[in-house]
Structure formats: C-alpha cells, structure tokens
Amino acid sequence: MTRPEVGKPPSVLVDQFGRQHIDLRVSVTDRCNLRCTYCMPLDASFMSQQKLLSFEEVTRCVCVASEMGVRTIRLTGGEPLMRPDLKRLIEQLTRVPGIEEVALTTNGLLLADQVAGLAQAGLSRLNVSLDSLDESRFEKIARRSGLQRILEGLEEAVRQGFRSIRINAVSIRGLTEQEIVPLAVFCREHGFHLRFIEFMPLDAEDAWSRKHVLTGREVHQILEVHVGQLKRSESEDSGQPSVDYSYVDGHGIVGFINPVSQPFCDRCDRLRLTADGQFKNCLFSTTDWDARALLRDGGTDKDLGFLLAACVNAKHFSHGIGTESFERPSRAMYQIGG
Question: In this structure, what is the dihedral angle of CA atoms 233, 234, 238, 239, given to the nearest 10 degrees?
Fold first, then answer.
C-alpha cells in the first residue's frame, strides 16, 4: 500500500471552514431489534461479522482521534446493545487518554439487563430513542413490540445512578403529533431531557419528503400551548445540535434538533466511524474514508491520522438538504450510525 504522506498528522481536526472536530460517533453494529419506519426496511439485511471492526480496532481508531483532539465518543448502531460484550469496549474507551465522555444511544429494549454492566464499565451518559408512550402507536412506528421493556430499562438506568438521560423522539407529520404532549409530561415527571428530532432523508425505504417533516418550531408551539411556557437555555457545548429550552416553571428541559428547517452545520463538530470501519464527515456524506483497510493491511497510527485529517478536510459547509445539489447517501441511518 502506497502512503506518500510525510511529516505527521495535525494535532487538531479543523476543516477548511474553521470548525474543530471533537466528537466521534462510533457505530458498533448495523443490526437492530426494531424496524422503525424512519430508519430501516422491514426486510433489512446486515453486514457479515467479519466486516465489523473488532473492539481493539475501534479502540485504536479512538486513540488516534484522541491524539488529534477528539474528546467525546458516542456509541451507536443499529442497536449497539446487540453487540455482544459491549461493556468491554466501553472499558477500553474510557481508558483512552484525552477521552472525557463515552455515551451510548440505544432503543432501550435490552437496557434493563445490561445497564448495570454499562455503569460499572464507566459509561458517562445514556440517550434512549422513544417515539411514543402508546403501545399501538409505538408498534406502528417501530414495527415491533417492546414499549414496556424500554420503560423498564429506563427505570433500571435511574436505579443504577444515571442522571443525565436524554430521550430522543423523531417528529413525523401525520404520525407523531399525538405523542408530543405525553412524552413531554412523562419526561418532566421523571427528570429526563427530551429532544425532538426532525425527520431526515435517511430512511431505507426512501419515503422521506419535506411534507413529512414536522418542524421543531411546530413542536415548540404545541408544547407551549399544552404543557408550559419555555425559555431559551444557554448551551455549554457550542457544537451541540440541540437548541435547548427550559420550562419557565423550572420542571424540565426540552431540546429541538432541526437539521431540515434550521440546519446547524455551521457549528458541527462531529465525525463518524461506521461499524464496518469507514470514517464519515457527515451523516449525508456520499464519500467514505476506509479505516478498516488500513487497520487490516499494516497501516500505522500515522496513516490513520492522515486518513482522518483528509476526511475532515473534505467536509462540506452544509449537508444541503432542500437544495438542487443534495444527494441522498446510499446507506440508511442504521447502516451509518445514528
């Protein structure tokens, strides 16, 4: 393999627009035990286990990224808790010098059985995807049952000491309007940080259209009418995709992630590593940077650093949703990592 780069990779990952990248989303599997309409097809096919990065390969990538300024890791999937012995990876990542936080995004179905081990391994924070508190509507969206198991998982997470639990709910016009208020009330009662995410063009069945986007502004209005007045909160994280509000009565926080109606590309600080070892600089990037090939063909950490720097340097200013030049990526959300 020819590697013409000389010198050493940069110590910080800054793109051509001046954005420094400190957050790495790491997918550990494309497999999932749900079939959510906005993410997966009913007849999903999954990559072979041989294509998945090993935990040691993931950790090596994170070590290189950490040396270049990455400070937070988010483990995703698919459903990451379907990857056997995930707590071992968490233990490895929490020991990487420079990594300040290891978080996990999960659908929660397997959480009750595994959350104690995750806590012991050093997991910093949980994000749980939950689109409905009504069993029939949950099944319509997820195309599987399991709402009660998710609620039990959340209860166990609280018992295990997790205090920074975020609930992520996707907003889809004509499907989730009735879920907004019950989710808000539930999260206020339990102290969870609720975040509404606009429906993005990453569904495997190519059903997305702008008319199906229930905007954050519309959700905000519904909450103010039916739940309580909101006031803008100051964010401690300038790269945070969520615009957060607190209830004026002091009970709860709700965030809005609006990639379609109010893109936050100008402050994006995140990169992605897919389960099969491809660096991506955006969810909507149509180009991959193959870390797995380097890892399995004798590449050095220096080679990985140059690859990651090239990925960052090629990042566009915005994803371009709604523009004539926008091109949907060939992979759906579950294949990239949410």
Answer: -10
HEC profile of 37-56: CCCCCCCCCCCCHHHCCCHH
Pairing of strands 253-257, 193-198: parallel
What are the CA-CA distances from residue 273 to residues 15, 52, 146, 270, 311 (Å)? 17, 11, 28, 10, 11
The strand pairing partners of 131, in sequence order, are none
Report the length, in residues, of the chain: 338
Q: How far apart are CA 258 and CA 15, in angstroms?
A: 23
pLDDT digit string, tens, across residues 228-243 = 999 999 876 666 788 9
Report residue 252 as tokens: 């709860």
Domain 23-336 indexed as CATH 3.20.20.70: yes
pLDDT at position 44, please? 83
- Going by the DSSP 8-state scheme, the letter that residue 235 receives in this structure is P
Structure tokens that stand for 12 in this block: 């910080």
Report the distance separating Cα 144 and Cα 85, nearest Å: 24
**Domain ranges for the chain:** 23-336
CA-based nearest residue to 338, from 14, 6, 15, 30: 30
Please report the beta strands in the chain, taking only residues with DSSP state E, as ranges in sequence order: 23-27, 72-76, 101-106, 125-129, 165-171, 193-198, 230-232, 243-247, 253-257, 270-273, 278-280, 289-290
Task: Please tell me the distance from the alpha carbon of residue 98 to that of residue 328, in angstroms, as a whole number.
Answer: 34
pTM greater than 0.90: yes
* Distance in angstroms (rounded) separating the CA atoms of residues 237 and 10: 23
- In the predicted structure, residue 293 carries a pLDDT above the cut 70: yes
Instruction: Determine how β-strand 230-232 pairs with β-strand 125-129.
Output: unpaired
Residue 323, classified by CB atoms within 10 Å of its CB into exposed (0-12), middle (13-18) or buried (19+), is exposed
Please say if the pLDDT value at position 338 is more than 80.
no
